[in-house]
Amino acid sequence: MRRCRLGLAVLGNAVLLSCAPATRYESPSTLRGYEILITRRDSLGQGIAEGLRRRGFTVRRHVRGGGRPTAFLLAFTFRDAEAPAVTWIHVRLADTRTGVIVAAVSAPLDSLGAATPDHARAIVDSLAASPALGRQIPPP
Description:
Layout: H1 2-18, E1 35-37, H2 43-54, E2 58-60, E3 70-79, E4 87-95, E5 101-108, H3 116-128
Parallel strand pairs: 1-2, 1-3
Antiparallel strand pairs: 3-4, 4-5
Helix pairs in contact: 2-3
């Protein structure tokens, strides 16, 4: 009898908690309101992380739940198939709770300088110059 009551109590609590209203998430109005999560360990990722830290951004290397709003850095290259085959670098900062792109940089890789530190510096300059986040791009 006692186990039955305990089981019903646990089940009742589970039902009540599953019906609890979700808390409203307000995304920051500026990029500075986010912690930036950079998990890349390559030289570009390291350079971007250091550059953002020097600019006053909070940069983390590991995923952590329950903290401040966080934006994940995603960077990839794309090479055009047709001549002149230009290699583009695309950098996106996406809100980890909503998936919304909060900042983006796209540029031909050769226009950012000759070496990886030059690329990182140009990307950080562009991200730091991003205007207020009034026009967020929703995920596809």
